[in-house]
Amino acid sequence: MSSIHVCETNTTTIPNACASVGSAGTDVNGMAVKSACQTLVKRLQPIISKNPKGTWNDWVKEAFKQSISLSATGYFRGYDGNMNWEKGEGHPFTYFVYGAACSEVAIDCLTGDHKNLRTDIVMDIGCSINPAVDIGQIEGAFVQGIGLYTLEELNYSPKGVLHTRGPDHYKIPAVCDIPEQFSVSLLSPSQNPHAIYASKFIPQALQGETHQQSSFQEVHEGT
């Protein structure tokens, strides 16, 4: 790992790079890096086979002596699900991310005010590459959903002009809106052959819409 150096994104070396929105950066860039590494390993394989007990430095030095290119570019296009929207045939998504959430909410029936007392979330995100990052995404998604379903409200003028265009005009989630007990668990690693190291990406927007339904439904049922 000490030999790996990650440079900043630059259009001089990587033109037309896709956006890393929706937490898809690991899926796309991870597979591209894997493709480039496989190209390099293929070039080094004849040298490795002659010196199987050698180190990485030994193989690279020998490749340099033999004028073998030690740079490669990887690219990942994504899987084609052959989706036909008119016929409803094919696979619109490469894989699915599953999860379940349960919330306990206290409601003031006189004012309509409510408080998230406890929320438990369980997610199946394959073999997590970085559990701390993934759990942070899940927590952030839930809080984003709190604002979407229970705090934020879109107000329009009779002419259709949006009045609530920013935090100055509507409430966003704050520290006091976080559940007093907040638990996020990752399901035992499941295999996902369509992404790097069998991982799954977890976009905050979609997760927020899904998990926050647990609190929203509690408020709805309670009133």
Automatic annotation (TrEMBL):
<dbReference type="InterPro" id="IPR016208">
    <property type="entry name" value="Ald_Oxase/xanthine_DH-like"/>
</dbReference>
<dbReference type="InterPro" id="IPR037165">
    <property type="entry name" value="AldOxase/xan_DH_Mopterin-bd_sf"/>
</dbReference>
<dbReference type="GO" id="GO:0005506">
    <property type="term" value="F:iron ion binding"/>
</dbReference>
<dbReference type="GO" id="GO:0016491">
    <property type="term" value="F:oxidoreductase activity"/>
</dbReference>
<protein>
    <submittedName>
        <fullName>Aldehyde oxidase 1-like isoform X3</fullName>
    </submittedName>
</protein>
<dbReference type="Pfam" id="PF20256">
    <property type="entry name" value="MoCoBD_2"/>
</dbReference>
<feature type="domain" description="Aldehyde oxidase/xanthine dehydrogenase second molybdopterin binding">
    <location>
        <begin position="1"/>
        <end position="179"/>
    </location>
</feature>
<dbReference type="InterPro" id="IPR046867">
    <property type="entry name" value="AldOxase/xan_DH_MoCoBD2"/>
</dbReference>
